[in-house]
Write a structure and sequence with these properties.
Pathway: Amino-acid degradation; L-histidine degradation into L-glutamate; N-formimidoyl-L-glutamate from L-histidine: step 1/3
Strand content: 5-15%
Distance between the termini: 25 Å
EC number: 4.3.1.3
Catalytic activity: L-histidine = trans-urocanate + NH4(+)
CATH topology of the largest domain: Fumarase C, Chain A, domain 2
Number of domains: 2
Subcellular location: Cytoplasm
Family: Belongs to the PAL/histidase family.
Helix content: 55-70%
Number of helices: 21
Length: about 500
């Protein structure tokens, strides 16, 4: 169980929640929540118009709502805004959404009641995951449609997934011994106003990108060995002169992965090649830049995840409700664009290494990495598949944040597009993982041709993990199952774990 300390949740905890951990608020958060709810009651008692509490929403903010209709107002905003379309969001993303919303409300600036917090906590504790369509948010005024679908389940509308079974929300709540809420003033708006959908998707993309990045360091080193490339470009002195932290970290990682390689030692003195292709030689520069970008995105998302993106915000010490724009997800949109570019480049340089290995003129290995080319096609089409995936990622990497479209009758006239900018990341990371899986097979096959020479201990352990799932390719066979197994080694982290190497990640 992860204990959420609002404003102080580390990135590692969000990663653990994404992977399936349950979460609840720290006890110290509850007094602030109660104070915030009491402040809303005092604000209502003044009978002054306050946006989202006793007025309409968006372009209808000038419409005053009477006290008798305040509960209906909050129910209506949830039901009317639950207008998303598309496939249901993945379980890990939904779990993150719930936890992010809980932590945001737990700061005590949103005016929700303790019983609303209790229901959110209970849903997380029982792994009750609302069905949330993945399309319909423009990333301002908050992720309205997706969060409305989340909030709808709390009032008994919509659907919830329980242990893989999709049930009507009211039935799922009842099965867990819970009752739907009747929302109080401000609560509907507090639940559906915020960046939690965009942030959850961006965090999910970041975590998957980190795993692909680390696996690509292992396969990149293994490809260097398969091509009998040089480790001189990984010399720490080169990278110290430039000074980029990511480049230095990647150079160190590649150098250590290749330490004590017999394959490298075999051609250290008599290799006629002066320099390797960029896909080998410039790994520290390319992958290091990707690492720096991922770390910057991680810092932005860590801040966003610990912030409050509701509107209006309740300041209990002065009984004020201040309307602003914290719901605008521009920081998340920029972070998502950065992650997308990094994922694209990780896959792109890996595909170039695959292409180099299958080309005998560049690698010195048998054509398409098969002992009998011609009769066998070997790795010919897996390289084509990798090229197709990289090209698809290039198209998806176009920045989402540079787009905007007016909404809500031009009241919300500049939006971030963070939601779909973040939502594409899981698909992009999956594409890149397939590319790295293909590289793992190609690099292991290339090293097989160097027997009885072996690589370093770390890379031989990684190659052993590959060979434990996929035998050497002697003659052509059904390739797709081999690729699926190799990709699973990448996405599960098993390939990196097998190497035993400590590799740089998104937290420096």
């Amino acid at each position: 169980m992860i204990i959420l300390h609002p404003g102080h949740v580390p990135l590692a905890d969000w990663r653990t929640i994404y992977r399936g951990a349950l979460a609840k608020l720290a006890e110290r958060a509850h007094p602030r929540i109660a104070e915030s709810a009491a402040a809303v009651a005092r604000i209502i008692a003044r009978h002054q118009p306050v946006y989202g509490i006793n007025t309409g929403f968006g372009k209808l903010a000038s419409v005053k709502i009477g006290d008798a209709d305040l509960a209906t107002l909050q129910r209506n905003i949830v039901l009317s805004h639950a207008a998303g379309v598309g496939a249901p969001s993945p379980a890990g993303v939904v779990r993150l959404m719930l936890a992010l919303k809980l932590a945001s409300l737990g700061v005590g600036a949103s005016g929700v009641r303790p019983e609303t917090i209790a229901l959110l906590e209970a849903m997380l504790a029982n792994d009750l995951l609302p069905v949330i369509p993945c399309q319909g948010s423009v990333g301002a005024s908050g992720d309205l449609a997706p969060l409305a679908h989340m909030a709808a389940t709390m009032i008994g509308a919509g659907e919830i997934v329980v242990n893989g079974e999709t049930l009507p929300a009211a039935d799922a709540l009842a099965r867990a011994g819970l009752a739907p809420l009747e929302l109080g003033p401000k609560e509907g708006l507090a639940l559906l106003n915020g960046t939690q959908f965009s942030t959850a998707n961006a965090l999910a993309g970041l975590f998957e990108a980190e795993g692909v990045f680390q696996a690509a360091l292992v396969t990149g080193a293994l490809s260097t060995e398969a091509a009998k490339g040089s480790d001189a470009p990984f010399d720490a002195r080169i990278h110290a002169l430039r000074g980029h932290a990511g480049q230095i970290a990647v150079g160190d990682a590649l150098r250590h992965l290749m330490t004590d390689s017999a394959i490298r030692a075999s051609h250290r003195e008599d290799d006629p090649r002066v320099q390797d292709p960029y896909c080998l030689r410039c790994q520290p520069q390319v992958m290091g830049a990707a690492l720096d970008v991922l770390r910057q995105a991680a810092a932005t998302l860590a801040t966003e995840a610990n912030g409050v993106s509701d509107n209006p915000l309740i300041f209990a010490d002065t009984d004020e409700a201040l309307s602003g724009g914290n719901f605008h997800a521009e920081p998340v949109a920029f972070a998502a664009d950065m992650i997308a570019i990094a994922i694209c480049e990780i896959g792109s340089i890996a595909e170039r290494r695959i292409a180099m290995l299958v080309d005998p003129a560049l690698s010195g290995l048998p054509a398409f990495l098969t002992p009998r080319p011609g009769l066998n096609s070997g790795f010919m089409i897996p390289q084509v598949t990798a090229a197709a995936l990289v090209s698809e990622n290039k198209q998806r990497a176009y920045p989402a944040s540079v787009d905007s479209i007016p909404t809500s009758a031009n009241q919300e006239d500049h939006v971030s597009m963070a939601a779909h900018g973040a939502r594409r990341l899981l698909a992009m990371a999956a594409n890149a993982a397939h590319v790295i899986g293909i590289e793992a097979l190609a690099a292991a096959q290339g090293c097989d041709f160097h027997a009885p020479l072996t690589s370093s201990g770390a890379l031989e352990a990684a190659r052993g993990a590959i060979r434990g799932e996929v035998p050497t390719l002697a003659d052509d066979r059904h390739f797709a199952p081999d690729m699926a197994k190799a990709t699973a080694l990448v996405t599960s982290g098993a390939l990196v774990k097998a190497s035993g190497a400590t590799l740089p990640g998104v937290t420096a």
